[in-house]
Amino acid sequence: MSAATDRLGVKREFELGGGRKGRLYSLPALEAQGAGPISRLPVSLRVVLESLLRNCDGQRVREEDVRALAGWRPAAERTAEVPFVVARVLLQDFTGVPLLVDLAAMRSAVARLGRDPGAVEPQVPVDLVVDHSVQVDVAGVPDALARNEAMEFQRNRSRYEFLKWGTQAFETFRIVPPGFGICHQVNLEYLAKGVLEKDGVWYPDTLVGTDSHTTMVNGIGVVGWGVGGIEAEAAMLGQPNYLLTPDVVGVHLTGALREGVTATDLVLALTELLRKTKVVGKFVEYHGEGARTLPAVTRATIANMAPEYGATLGFFPVDEQTLRYYAATGRSAEQVEAIRGYFTAQGMFGIPRRGEVDYSTVVELDLGSVVPSVAGPKRPQDRIALGGLKERFRSLLAAPAEGGGFGRKPEELGRKFGVAKGADGAARPGGGSQEPRTAPVLQVVQNTNPLTELEMMNNRPTPDRPESSLGRTATDDEIRLGHGDVVIAAITSCTNTSNPGVMLAAGLLAKKAVERGLTVSPTVKTSLAPGSRVVSDYLAKTGLQPYLDALGFNVVGYGCTTCIGNSGPLDPRIEDVVTRNDLVCAAVLSGNRNFEARIHQAVKANFLMSPPLVVAFALAGRVDLDVEKEPIGLAKDGQPVFLRDLWPTVAEVDALLGTGSDPAAYRQNYADVAGQNRAWLEMPAPAGEVYAWDAQSTYIREPPYFLPFPAQPAPIAPVRGARALAVFGDSVTTDHISPAGSIKPSSPAGGWLQENGVQVPDFNSYGSRRGNHEVMVRGTFANVRIKNLLVPGVEGGVTVHQPSGRRMSIHEAALAYEQEGVPLVVFAGQEYGTGSSRDWAAKGTRLLGIRAVVARSFERIHRSNLVGMGVLPCQLPDDVTAQSLAIDGSETFDLEGAEGALAPRQRVTLAIHRKDGRTDRVPLTLRIDTPIEVEYYRHGGILPYVLRQIVGR
């Protein structure tokens, strides 16, 4: 990496506080040189500008890059790229394992070339938090935490040993072990420093992370966002994170939240508002008097949901509320004063008032207009006012599937179904008559759900576990389920568990409910997964945890659980009742995502809500209920209990908030991160600079990206005579493209695992096997809910091979086309690639032989990841769809102009050759957005590009 120098002559001394002095690259000094009206730039852009200024070396960052951003204009056309050099990188284990695999593969490639493998070394600090692997196998019992953590280690030992190898192989690679917390909450409470220092120079804490909710740290004034693993690898290896100069949407907040309205209600309102505003790919910055009054934990909740409203980040500048949070979470007084001194010296301290900063556009929200809400049943932006949930659910139940509904008959509402009985009256564990487990699920017709979901439910990661291990169990007679009944209630996700206000509110509501004699039905799987151990500390100190325990909300783990689909199994009898009767049952969770089939593959309606509302709906046991008017249960004296009777007041919550802001508790919790997990400490791990690949491992395999690895990239091959592997509709998520959940025995990935000696109970999940490309490529487009329009009425990863007309799995068809030398394209609608920053959605696409994805629009991270893997993202004109082009799979395609010397966002032409001999041509926009992305694509992706830079030094 080239050493940065003060090329623009702006290094200045400033007051750190306490008589200390430091040096910084001064934005006011740059403005005084006439570089532009920097003091009127959005604060988030000024932080990025500081990075350019400090890292300006004439190579990675040029002087013209600095001056271009300093002269940012709110409404200008966005053509310039910003080479943002971040201070650090944050990983979680699901995305971190494949990243470490790639780094290990790069070292192996360098070693094969006879060079020093140590040249492949992160150039910035890297923190990996192991938080995505714990599952809610056991819930509702006192020892749920210990049992879940034990099973987590049993399942993931191979991955964890590989991660431990990484800590000794790479000097700048640190790990927060399992059982400690969720990466974003740990980042908020511990890893984030506000400002950093190196060689006497102070600069803002900035980062990219391999999880889209990295934006949570924007709530405390840290600029950072989620990227795919391949982008994070480039950042780790000293490459700037290139992005188009962004528009910045200012969100002007006024007023104050009303009594009874939570931070969760506010973020759901903002998610709905900003999705409608279309902020995809833009910076969002909050300002105004309303923003000033929000505590940092509420800001973090809002920032966490930036991916849900589509923004690159959701930023709150540093102010007194920020400093108060840093102090309350155990940061030293010297660090807090350094943050104050630095941002004051840069003219960036304080939330701007309206008119003080120039934004591309300004959106208004009166905090007093926010009402209690939930969101769902399939998307986080689909907000429903709490009082309207009953009618909304009932209307969706009867609405057709193509309209976002469930296609059920209204008269089905209210019917209850129980456990199937045999002729002798005994419960039949399998549930009455059912198809055999070997039934062909790859060709299931939509709405024949019992067949599809039976296979899914039979493929839980540990399907042979005794029923009693689930914790609380219901008797056969207690299992009476119908549409709208709640079967999962989870207080989960860093979005809300980082906020003591809503967590204490949940505990207070539980306390009042227990005191009134209310209980939760054993048919509801309840769980509490705090984002850090500090949450358990203050719930214990306030005496609220026992009341949560009494309702079944025992702690099940410290990590991402239900929010990412690690909800674990339901009682097999409950699963059978749901699947056999095709019920639309519900999950209620305090998470950030509720995409179809994400939470649990048998649960179709998933609603996001605040932690106290999760407790309330667990008590009610159903979502087709107006909790503002109807009772949620009966007290021990037989009297009806309403939500208003249980809801804690702001004063009641405020009286306990001090326990959630105890600096000593945070300092104690994070005093010895590595030493607090004995199982992790005692686990042996491989050693050495280069990883010794095990060809028999089904978890960690050397990927094929550098086998072989030519010194120079080959010329860009034209895309001619391509076939459509799939045609998708709108809102195809990265979960659809590369699922993280269970692996079906009959799927291509399941077949490969069985061929390699893995028994079905040991399959684990796609997410846990991301270090093995053999599994992951077979899992690409394997989500059981994905709908390939080339195979109408069918769900799952199937397609039709052309010209044979044979129906087969997508992986099988891709192999056939590869043998025939046929390149592949995929067509999609709007918002292709929404959801998690999942690099395997792009890696699997490339390994299937897909050369281009033609869509109406792309989500930011996935578009970038496609380019980073050498796949062309091409955008259709606004009024054109695959349906309007009548693409049925019989066509062949050429991409004219997509070879040779490419330019960012150039026009190319899609030539569609029909089977009747006609040819239609459609203009496309090549969504390679920046010059550096052209280079990435020319090299076959970011990793080959970076590796050639390393080898060429």
TrEMBL record:
Cofactor section: [4Fe-4S] cluster
Ranges for domain Aconitase/3-isopropylmalate dehydratase large subunit alpha/beta/alpha: 79-621
Keyword Metal-binding applies: yes
Class of enzymatic activity (EC top level): lyase
One matching Pfam family: Aconitase
Family that this chain belongs to: Belongs to the aconitase/IPM isomerase family.
The Aconitase A/isopropylmalate dehydratase small subunit swivel domain, residue ranges: 752-878
Region described as Disordered: spans on this chain: 455-476
Organism lineage string: Bacteria, Pseudomonadati, Myxococcota, Myxococcia, Myxococcales
Record-linked InterPro entries: AcnA_IRP_Swivel (IPR044137), Acnase/IPM_dHydase_lsu_aba_1/3 (IPR015931), Acoase/IPM_deHydtase_lsu_aba (IPR001030), Aconitase/3IPM_dehydase_swvl (IPR015928), Aconitase/IRP2 (IPR006249), Aconitase_4Fe-4S_BS (IPR018136), Aconitase_4Fe-4S_dom (IPR036008), AconitaseA/IPMdHydase_ssu_swvl (IPR000573)
EC nos: 4.2.1.3
Catalytic activity: citrate = D-threo-isocitrate
Pathway: Carbohydrate metabolism; tricarboxylic acid cycle; isocitrate from oxaloacetate: step 2/2
Iron found in the keyword field: yes
Name of the protein in its database record: Aconitate hydratase A
Protein keywords: Iron, Iron-sulfur, Metal-binding
